[in-house]
Amino acid sequence: MIRSQTAQRFGWVAIVPLVLTVALSISFAASPTSQPHHGDQVSRDGPLSLEDHMEQMQSSLRELKRQIIDPRKNMESANIVAEMLVHAAQAKQMRPPKEREFASDKRQAFVMGFRKKMNGLCASLVQLEASLLDDDNIQAQKHLAKVLDYRFKGHRQYKQE
Ligand code: HEM
Question: Could you give the number of structural domains in the chain?
Answer without folding.
Answer: 2
